[in-house]
Write a structure and sequence with these properties.
The protein has 125 residues and is mainly beta. The chain is built from 2 helices and 9 strands; from the N terminus they run βββββααββββ. The chain has 2 domains: 34 residues, no CATH class; 80 residues, no CATH class. The strands form 4 sheets. The protein has a 3-stranded antiparallel β-sheet. It has a two-stranded antiparallel ribbon with strand order 1-3.
C-alpha cells in the first residue's frame, strides 16, 4: 500500500497553480490533481443537526466528498448554508450563480445508508 500525503514538489521556486494540490507518494512520484473543477453549489443543514449529530454531518461530508469553501449561519432561520465543491454538483461556468441542492440521506438503525444531492429549481440569475 502506498501512503499518500499532500505536499508540494521539492523544486526551488515551484508553486502549484491555484486550484491544484500536489499529492506525492513515498516513491517520490508527483502528480497534479485539480481540486476545483467548478462543480459548485450550495445546500442547507439545520443548526439542530449540526449541534446534535456533528459526527453524522461530518460522515456525510466525507462520504460525498464535499469541500465547503463558505458557510453562512442563519440562526434566525435555524440553518447553515454551505457553499461547496462536490463531484455530484454540476459544473458552473464563471459568471453564473451556483445552484441550490437538497441533501437527501437514508438511515437504518441510526446509521447512514446512503446520501446524495438533488438539484433544486434554479435561482434567478
Amino acid at each position: 500500500m502506498v501512503e499518500r500525503r499532500f505536499c508540494t514538489p521539492n523544486v526551488a521556486g515551484s508553486i502549484p497553480a491555484a486550484g491544484y494540490i500536489s499529492p506525492c507518494t513515498d516513491n517520490g512520484d508527483y502528480k497534479e490533481r485539480q481540486v476545483n473543477k467548478r462543480n459548485i453549489g450550495f445546500f442547507k443543514v439545520s443548526v439542530e443537526n449540526v449541534k446534535e449529530k456533528p459526527d453524522e454531518v461530518a460522515a456525510i461530508f466525507s462520504i460525498l466528498k464535499v469541500l465547503p469553501y463558505w458557510v453562512n449561519c442563519h440562526l434566525d432561520l435555524g440553518e447553515f448554508e454551505y457553499h461547496a465543491m462536490c463531484d455530484q454538483f454540476e459544473i458552473v461556468e464563471i459568471g453564473f450563480m451556483a445552484p441550490e441542492y437538497q441533501l437527501i440521506m437514508k438511515s437504518e438503525g441510526g446509521k447512514i445508508v446512503s446520501a446524495e444531492f438533488k438539484k433544486r429549481k434554479s435561482r434567478p440569475q
